[in-house]
Write a structure and sequence with these properties.
α7 links the parallel β2 and β3. Helix content is 55%, strand content 9%. It has an 8-stranded mixed sheet, with helices on both faces. The chain binds guanosine-5'-diphosphate (GDP). This is Signal recognition particle protein. Belongs to the GTP-binding SRP family. SRP54 subfamily. Pfam families: SRP54 (PF00448), SRP54_N (PF02881), SRP_SPB (PF02978).
Length: 445
Amino acid sequence: ATFGNLSDRLSATFKNLRGKGKLSPADVDGTVREIRRALLDADVNLEVVKAFTGRVRDRALGDEVSKALNPAQQVVQIVNDELITILGGQQRRLQFAKNPPTVIMLVGLQGAGKTTLAGKLAKWLASENHTPMLVAADLQRPNAVTQLQVVGAHAGVTVFAPEPGNGVGNPVRVAKDAIKYAKDKQHDIVIVDTAGRLGVDAELMRQAADIRKAVDPDEVLFVLDAMIGQDAVTTAKAFQDGVDFTGVVLSKLDGDARGGAALSVASVTGRPIIFASTGEGLDDFEPFHPDRMASRILDLGDILSLIEQAQKNFDEEEARKVAEKFATDTFTLEDFLAQMQQLKNMGSIKSMLSMLPGARGMRQQLDNFDESELTRTEAIIQSMTIQERRQPKVLNGSRRLRIARGSGTTVTEVNALVNRFEQAAKMMKTVAKGGVPQVPGMGPI
Ligand code: GDP
């Protein structure tokens, strides 16, 4: 994914520190130099890198590290803190108007992902019990209106588009009419999709600024393609000067590009990143959490997002029961089987697995992960007796052999499954009790 290479480089840097007791100034300098190179190679803006590494260096040479029990781990903690800071610090939620409708305007270059985002945002807001409406104010591109109508249909929301001959060519008028319409029809949120150009130009900016002035939006979201590299900063600044915006949406974070844009834009513009878009599907979208993103980049895992995704996919009653079983240590292989069967319904098992701590280290396995493994796992559990499923402790050698034969697998596979189950149960138990699971190889962070 986007930060793959950066993650690998940072992990390697930290690995060099591990096992060292005290850190000498030379150790710190070496580490900071590595971090600096890794960030620059990931296309992070030079000014941002300088400020970032300066702060990391000052802190790493200070008391908090020299007095720490585990200085290497303390350095990771500092890098984590500072990453959170450049990503914007606290999570910034979408702001709603006191008097509906809330108006959200989308701006950005053509191809940045505005129209797709409009659909994602609408679908997400509808799932949060809002009644959003989409507005086609992109009247430049011939099929932009149709594209928004298609997206709206997929999201299951109303799309307001100009009737031929009525306001065509005048996006300001369309946007104003749309807001009137939304008030009448009790839509509490209006999402205005505006025209983009391939490059920044004065006409584009003026049009967006005119719409902004006319509809006085509660949020102006600048959609930024995370794959455009160093250009991201210039583009963001041009939009800030030309229209200004209240928040940023990073799109295409699923790409393989270096993604430094994502790490620069909040610092450079002083505007928070509010959402992240991670694919072409309408569900590939999430509110942006600086702390979780930092954890993912440092491969510390993102347990919270993992749990949230799981909760969205399981029904709530089920999720509550499972959490209780984890907490009370009564989660069995039978429950595990039920969960696996649920997992099959989940869109992207891989993306869920990739949120686990140390996931980058398991990348090979993740890449090789396929559904047939799920099927084998199911077969193994189904070859167990009810007692074995409920009390895996009774699984001695001869039982394991019988199960392997019964399921057409090997004892090694049976062992691996039982181990995995025990580890998962242990980790989930910690999480269910409000604890932080240990990061493999690093100890608790
Ligand atoms: P617009 O011109 O800003 O409205 O951009 P579109 O919404 O039309 O998106 C341009 C292209 O990028 C389309 O092919 C989308 O499917 C694709 N796209 C949008 N968001 C994402 C994303 O988060 N990930 C990926 N991989 N593709 C995206």
